[in-house]
Specification:
KCNMA1_auxiliary; two-stranded parallel sheet; transport; eight-stranded mixed β-sheet; signal; Leucine-rich repeat, LRR (right-handed beta-alpha superhelix); ion transport; alpha/beta
């Protein structure tokens, strides 16, 4: 068996000297051990719940399979440290102070199957936030009071997703186009949101299962009714006739057509007048001048002398 070449002593000294000169310490994510105030076991589980942490724990073992950091005051999930944990399959970040999740947060967590972001202060979910999580099976995002916007393609890449829970947030509209396309999705929690039961949520009302707590918060005439019972009603209302915006649109189109017709008629009239004047002027230039014609009146007619006939008589 051929051994790999070993680094020389001179090479090691150069590396150590470079680190000392630049003041760079090895990344905490690369070190082996257990974070302070956390418990690590032989099953590659790191338990840091309820330790009053304000920052993501450092010194995590690279082979960590389960990480529980719930019930702390962590405000950010740093992508640089989190993505070193490429074998992570279970991540519980519930009951913290997370305000946003960047597009690079889960960039290297292709094995992650369970993710809990409940009881945080999230406000928006972008389109590629969960894109790298190709193995994600369960996603919980409940009880984020400020969460009012989830991008329509937020779950488009999560083909393994089976359970999605977005209950008790501040959602009023949810585009389900990407959810419908997920082949394994079997459960979606929607209760406790401020759903608007209008035409913007028509597809959602048709798609959801009837749940006792999934009710409308508006409009007032539908408040308290269950989403699943309004699907067909909204379908008939939203496609039955013209709405106020449709009438405004047609009114605007009519005004534009009327204005265009008026301007066109005016322009045609101006052109016709100018053309008529041009033709009249042209005809005047082509006619002979009356004063230049010879005067053939009796006073000015030329005298005609009588001519003699062949016998010398003068003809009258």
């Amino acid at each position: 068996m051929r051994l790999a070449p070993q680094p020389s002593a001179q090479s090691l000294r150069l590396i150590i000297l470079l680190i000392l000169v630049m003041g760079v310490a090895p990344s905490p994510a690369l070190t082996v051990g257990c974070p302070a105030r956390c418990v690590c076991d032989d099953q590659l589980v790191v338990q840091c719940a309820g330790q009053h942490l304000t920052a993501f724990p450092t010194d995590l073992p690279l082979a960590t399979r389960q990480l529980i950091i719930s019930n702390n005051r962590i405000v950010e999930l740093p992508p640089l440290q989190l993505n070193y944990l490429s074998d992570l399959v279970y991540l519980d970040c519930s009951n913290n102070s997370l305000t946003e999740i960047s597009m690079s947060t889960f960039g290297n967590l292709g094995k992650l199957a369970y993710l809990d972001l409940s009881f945080n202060t999230l406000t928006r979910i972008e389109d590629r936030t969960f894109g790298p999580l190709s193995s994600l099976v369960m996603l919980r995002m409940t009880d984020n009071p400020g969460l009012s916007d989830i991008h329509s393609d937020a779950f488009a890449k999560n083909s393994a997703l089976q359970v999605l829970d977005v209950s008790r947030n501040n959602l009023s509209v949810l585009n389900i186009s990407s959810l419908i396309a997920l082949p394994t999705l079997r459960s979606v929690g929607l209760s406790g949101n401020s759903w608007s039961c209008d035409c913007d949520n028509e597809d959602l009302c048709l798609w959801v299962h009837i749940e006792g707590q999934t009710v409308c918060r508006g409009p007032p005439n539908l408040q308290g009714q269950r989403l699943g019972e309004l699907g067909l009603q909204l379908r008939s209302q939203c496609h039955q006739g013209l709405g106020s915006w449709d009438y405004l649109f047609f009114l605007a189109i009519g005004f534009v057509i009327f204005a265009a017709g008026t301007v066109s008629a005016w322009a045609i009239g101006v052109v016709m007048v100018l053309y008529e004047r041009y033709v009249k002027k042209k005809s005047e230039q082509m006619d002979p001048d009356d004063e230049s014609l010879p005067n053939l009146s009796a006073n000015n007619s030329p005298s005609i002398r009588p001519l003699p006939d062949s016998h010398g008589k003068i003809l009258a």
